[in-house]
Amino acid sequence: MTDSETETLSTSTASAPPQRRQEGTPPPFPLREVPNGQRVRIVSLPRGESGARLEALGIRPGKIVTKLSGMPFSGPVALELDGRQIAVGHGVSRAILVEEVPEP
User: Fold this and answer.
1) Of 6, 54, 55, 84, which residue is 20 to 30 A from 48 by alpha carbon distance?
2) Which positions ≥6 away from 16 have C-beta within 8 Å?
3) Structure pTM?
4) Do 75 and 58 contact (CB within 8 A), yes or no?
């Protein structure tokens, strides 16, 4: 993955205004660090082809996903999104930034 692919966007399109975090909320963190079974909201995606492929799969800022599992030794991360299971690579999962979602 190139450096430009690991840079992140605050929104899915350049023309949309950046989303503001409420004061006191923790900063976004990489999807890779989410514990298995936790629901999170996508905050930003990597730039370039990786981000475009993720958006084609329905993974975009604002979507809520559940991390199903993360494989050891830099293996893929499995997510549930809208009832579908999707696997993303280890490097890409480090570049997807997320925030915690309150339980329903």
Assistant:
1) 84
2) none
3) 0.75
4) no
